[in-house]
Amino acid sequence: MQLRKRAIGLSLLATLTLLFGGWFLYQKMEVETPLRTHIGQMKSAELTHLDVSKDRIEIKLQVTRPDLFPQEYRRLLQETADLARGKTVEVDVDNDSQDLEQIWMDGLFSFTEALDLHQYSRIPQMLTEWKTAHRLDEASALMDDRNVYVYLKKGKDDFYAIIPRSAGNEVTMHG
Which residues cross the membrane (predicted)? Predict the structure, then answer.
């Protein structure tokens, strides 16, 4: 009887090891490695953190070429969606200087107003004003059909924000 309990225990241990080892290997080989490869090929950003869990993929990037980032970001989202298989995907950027974030927060109301009222042409003018007022080295915005990408730089500090363009029940200005 003692031998049977030991055999059952060892069988259970071997089964659990294979099951969880297989799941871990699958996550590593089929999700994490292709993502690391894709992100490694990006010219506009570097990977700072990647976490693949059972129900979530978390990616953190440091944007190095803000002019190229929107295109590569869209491709990254598509690649990640293909690999995610139902997992929640979260992509964040780590360009978050506290001083530049304060400039961003101070101008966020007028930026959001321009966005909500579909007055996208006001955004470059607004950023030019911020650049002059705060003596920034760079202040730029790019836009695609889903997001507005804002980049602020002063010295070695930089700030990058990805702002979703809302769809559906938006406020529009007529007149």
Answer: 7-26
